[in-house]
Amino acid sequence: MQRTAELLARARDGDGDAFRALVEPHRGELQLHCYRVLGSVQDAEDVLQETLLAAWRGIGAFEGRASVRTWLYRIATNRCLNALRAGDRRSPVDYRPEVSLPEPSHRHAEPAWLEPYPDVLLDGVADHAPGPDARYELRESVSLAFLAALQGLPPRQRVVLVLRDVLGFRAAEVAVMLGTTPDAVAGALKRARAAMPGRAGSPPSPRERRVVDEFVRAFEAGDVDAVVALLSDDVRLSMPPLPLVYEGLADVRNFLTTVAMRDGRRHRLVPTRANGQPAFGAYLLTPIPRAHGVLVLTMAGDRVAGLTRFVDNSLLAAFGLPRSLRGGSR
């Protein structure tokens, strides 16, 4: 506490090093907060930079009535709301499939702007979820299912749910952040909770990890039957930002046969993790294997319940993965 007071005093006097020492411990969780609200890693990074700049410019007026962390969350939350009101987000990548895609069972999948979040960015992020009655734990609150559902909420309900049920801020604190009343916060939270899906399942088991390994072997071998044998009956395949979703074994099998693995096409999957889930940099095997997006798996027990392929190859950089594999095919 004494060190914080000393750093705060120096930062108010214009000491940039002291300011960085104050805010750096919160950088990771602030970026994750912006990502939860905005659904895009790139937009979250932009808003994080705006937040830190606003905090630096406003440090002289910070009176210390709340903690530095709470103060930073207030700035970040309102910057996120400003971005949502302005509708100023990157246009989705203009992806044109190489072949005609089969007619899907549904035309709308995840929000077009939704991007995967590298698990490496979660390292060191403290879990501030509230007590034993916490609705969402860290792993659950970064899952693609949670993020997609969250993006469907009105902005004010979205930030209230994240601040209260994910981060554990008190209603009075959230009211101050948003310039409203605790009763208004309680009402927004009630409506947001009613619109969200049920809780996620248990953490990964050794069996699930074996299933993921089997999936990789089958997918890389181009064995459609072996891949389908690992899927749940209600499996769901989507490709943000395309507004398409294929549901059920028949539709997914048809997609794998006629598109992903047509004419003997083969892939290499380079393992990573995204949103607390198994993920891969996907590469199409050509003389120099070329990028084919980021593939994220959603597990349900010992089955793969979801395949989400983000088609924007620029996302690979966030995972430390290249655009091509110079070593060629295996």
Features:
330 residues; alpha+beta; Rna Polymerase Sigma Factor, Chain: A; Nuclear Transport Factor 2, Chain: A; 12 helices; 43% helix; elongated
What can you tell me about this protein's structure?
This protein has 330 residues and is α+β, with helices and mostly antiparallel strands. The protein is built from twelve helices and six strands. The protein has a six-stranded mixed sheet with strand order 2-1-6-5-4-3. Helix 3 packs across helix 4 and helix 4 packs across helix 5. The chain starts with a helix and ends in a 20-residue tail after the last strand. The mean pLDDT is 90. Pfam families: Sigma70_r2, Sigma70_r4_2, SnoaL_2.
CATH hierarchy: architecture of the domain at 206-319: Roll
Helical content band: 40-55%
Largest sheet: 6 strands, mixed
Given the C-alpha coordinates, what overall shape results? elongated
> How many helices?
12
- The neighbouring-strand order within the major sheet is 2-1-6-5-4-3
Provide a quick synopsis of the model.
This is RNA polymerase sigma factor. This protein is α+β, with helices and mostly antiparallel strands.
Task: Write the topology of this structure.
Layout (H helix, E strand, L loop, with lengths): L1 H11 L3 H8 L3 H12 L2 H18 L9 H19 L57 H8 L3 H12 L4 H8 L3 H14 L10 H16 L2 H5 L2 E8 L6 E3 L1 H12 L6 E8 L2 E8 L5 E11 L2 E8 L20
Helix pairs in contact: 1-2, 3-4, 3-5, 4-5, 5-8, 7-9, 8-9
